[in-house]
Amino acid sequence: MDPEQILLPALVAITSLGALVFGARRLRLRPAGLRQAGVRALETIGLLIVFTVLNLALGVAGILAWRGITGEFVSLYVLNDAVLGLMSLLQAVIFHWWWLGRP
């Protein structure tokens, strides 16, 4: 197996194990709470997908409207930016915390 294929999963596994040990020993978190944390993480990922699709749909509509109204060409590739994904993630996290009633 190519080392490049193992690197990222190995890094994630090592830091996850480290977080588990740190959380259980230093922060005194219950390992049983991982299931609920996993469920909440999946909820956040679902919200991330929803916000990403909404942001992309609104962006495409806005660009097409701009093209139609002004006749000026704006590329749809403007939406192909990692910042949009990060901002969608921020939206998802904030909305999820709000939904759960946390500050």
Overview of this protein structure:
The protein is mostly helical and 103 residues long. It has one domain. The protein is built from 3 helices and no strands. It has helices at residues 3-25, 34-70, 82-99. The longest helix is centred in the middle third of the chain and has 37 residues, at 34-70.
- Could you name the ranges where pLDDT drops below 50 across 5 or more consecutive residues? none
Task: Give the total of beta strands.
Answer: 0
Helix content: over 70%
Listing every helix as H and every strand as E from the N terminus to the C terminus, the arrangement reads: HHH
SSE class: mainly alpha
For the largest beta-sheet, the strand count, sense and barrel status come to: none
How big is the Rg? 20 Å
Write the layout of secondary structure elements.
Elements: H1 3-25, H2 34-70, H3 82-99
Structure described in brief:
This protein is mainly α and 103 residues long. The chain contains 3 helices and no strands. The termini are far apart.
